[in-house]
Design brief:
Strand content: 5-15%
CATH superfamily of the largest domain: Aspartate/ornithine carbamoyltransferase
Shape: globular
Order of helices and strands: HEHEHEHEHEHEHEHEHHEHH
Helix content: 40-55%
CATH architecture of the largest domain: 3-Layer(aba) Sandwich
Bound molecules: phosphoric acid mono(formamide)ester, norvaline
Distance between the termini: 10 Å
Number of domains: 2
Strand order of the largest sheet: 7-6-5-8-9
Length: 310
């Protein structure tokens, strides 16, 4: 397994990489985390963020520092992006200064347009459609716990959002069964569902249900995220009663496999999509998951920048 094929590539969707490439990336991340592999890659990363971020911003910054590189925080308010400079112009300018860019924005089309016009690697650091960097860390966390991914079942409860989409694609690519429980009006994007089913094919199963208890039955991993994502804050209050049956609490967790673990990408709204007792409980791996953002993204940066000798 090698990450050599990732050099110079973009990472805009979880489905941009093959099963073998994700396996190689996770192996590199685990080796870097253990201190078994050290990579020097003195390059410059730009963070072009139009939404708030704690984990993604800090973990990408620390990752490039630890590789010997530098980071530039280019949030929209300090660049001409806030005054409407077109993406196609920003992309062609920034590619001449930066070695790699991570973008957090609204439309998936925005990162795709940027990547089309910029020759440097472009990373999706969250759009309304996907959050693939999060899912690299999630897969690393699940692999650490169970020693494998193929054959496990992940149940996602709540809103069929960006995190759900990347999880569906990532789980299918790794041969995991994926169960998605959402209210009827909040199902995942139909295109992502179709793509997930095509990847899973006859290797693993994809279940979409409105019944949270059906979803968690036989699950090794329970996963949830906020009920209203960034940009939907004004809808948060009206969504609470609709999503309440999907809360990850001790009763729901008791229905999963006895050794099931619980993940949440964070930030969490405690006592909404997940209870305090579950976040703080013995089956939570949420803090390891947050730590793994650093290790997974360090491996990703090193691979895209061609810093890993084969
Ligand atoms: N999980 C995640 O992406 O967190 P931030 O929004 O804090 O970056
Ligand atoms: N679905 C959430 C994830 C935050 C990391 C959002 O987009 O706000």
């Amino acid at each position: 397994m090698s990450v050599a094929s990732l050099q110079g590539r973009d990472f805009l969707s979880m489905a941009d990489f093959s099963t073998e490439e994700i396996q190689a990336l996770l192996q590199l991340a685990a080796q870097m985390k253990a201190g078994a592999v050290q990579v020097r890659c003195a390059k410059v990363l730009g963070l072009l963020f139009q939404k708030a971020s704690t984990r993604t911003r800090v973990s990408f910054s620390v990752a490039i520092y630890q590789l010997g590189g530098q980071v530039l925080d280019l949030n929209a308010t300090v660049t001409q992006v806030s005054r409407g400079e077109p993406t196609i112009d920003t992309a062609r300018v920034l590619e001449r200064y930066l070695d790699v860019v991570a973008i957090r924005t609204f439309e998936q089309q925005e990162v795709e347009t940027f990547a089309h016009y910029a020759k440097i690697p472009v990373i999706n650091a969250l759009t309304d459609l996907e959050h693939p960097c999060q899912v690299l860390a999630d897969l690393l966390t699940i692999q650490e716990e169970f020693g494998t991914l193929a054959g496990l079942t992940l149940a996602y409860l709540g809103d069929g959002n960006n995190v759900a989409h990347s999880l569906m694609l990532g789980c299918a690519l790794m041969g995991m069964n994926v169960h998605i429980a959402t209210p009827a009006e909040y199902q995942p994007d139909a295109g992502i569902v179709e793509r997930t089913r095509a990847i899973a094919c006859d290797r693993s199963s994809v279940l979409l249900t409105q019944d949270p208890y059906e979803a968690v039955t036989g699950a090794h991993v329970l996963y949830t995220d906020v009920w209203a994502s960034m940009g939907q804050e004004d809808l948060a209050a009206t969504r609470i009663p609709i999503f309440q049956p999907y809360q990850v609490n001790e009763a729901l967790l008791a229905q999963a496999e006895p050794k099931a673990i619980v993940l949440h990408c964070l930030p969490a709204h405690r006592e909404e999509e997940i209870t305090d007792a579950v976040i703080e409980g013995s089956q939570s791996r949420i803090w390891d998951e947050a730590e793994n953002r650093l290790h997974a993204q360090k491996a990703l940066l090193a691979s895209l920048l061609g810093g890993v000798s084969s």
